Amino acid sequence: MQSENHWSLSPLSFSIEPGQGLAIIGDNGAGKSSILRAVAGLIPIDSGIVNIPERTLAVLDLNLLFHPDFSGYENLYMMNACHGRSDAQLNEVMDQVIQFAGLEEAVHRPVREYSSGMRMRLGVAYVMFQDFELLIIDEVLAVGDLAFQRQTISRMRDLLAEGKSLLLSSHNMLEVSSLCSEVVFLDYGEVLTQGNPEDVLAEYFQAAEKKGKFAELIDGRKGLGESNSQDVQISNVRVLDADGVEIEILQSGQAFQIEVQFHIEGAPIINPLMRVEFFRNDGLMVAGMNNFRQGVHWDLHPGEAAIRIRYPSLNLLAGRYYLSLSLWPDEYASMVTHEAYVHHDRCYSLIVQSQRQDGAGVASQTCFFEILGPEE
Question: Is the pTM of this model over 0.85?
Fold first, then answer.
């Protein structure tokens, strides 16, 4: 069998100034971890030069640093030793680490009793209070619940403001846009684009969209659940701009419409409830509406029927969202009996892009900043 040479990474050049963050993004297998390991000196490079500060902290797999039989407290000292730091250095920040992790009551229990989230929080808390010039971290900042993620991002912003530097690989685009002033988008070791987060993330979302047809069943499945009665079926779903032109990618602030086509057999459907729900990729419902809430009522007759829902402005920020569509006999059935005519639960994928000025988080809220001077 003849062997072939395979380049894991194409030529790549970047520098990170004090107080700046750089993110590597791309699909699994794109080469993100290889770059971080090469910069950290864990794998050899065939050509090129890597210059990193003497005080560089590389955190590539937190799970490797935990022993299940030791307490969280003991594991912190073991983790500290693995990074070549003294007990005295850890003792100076120990209380802050434990408080940041939120494990005051569990820190002396064996780690085997911890959930995976508790272990990750402890590891990230340790990292957040170390003395480094450059932090190299591989997809472990966005751990724990939403509150802990926000706390971590806030702490990392403070460290950047102090002049620390960050080299990060992540699938969390909020993390990337919040902490990094430069982004490298990789695909199978090739640099597709490199530059400011706004431009690179826009190209990343477009590339993600090309890999799967818009508004189709997730992963070729029927979403999280699809139920159809024999007499009612959703035959087609389209997302349109304000002029009725079908679109594939939505922009924050854009006016748009969702058109749902039904095929109905048998008797007319009298005064049904139509529900539309938007879900984030972690399952959080971020918006929902039905026609009963707006006092809108209609009957659907046998044959082909269509309902169009118009949105004057999309308030969601950049990310992938999932759309649920359902038709119910009435509001009671939708909330109590859960017996729908048809229910496509998170069956349709939506890509949203946004600009830096749209803000951060899940939703965009229009606001205006003004400074109030002294009274004249």
Answer: no
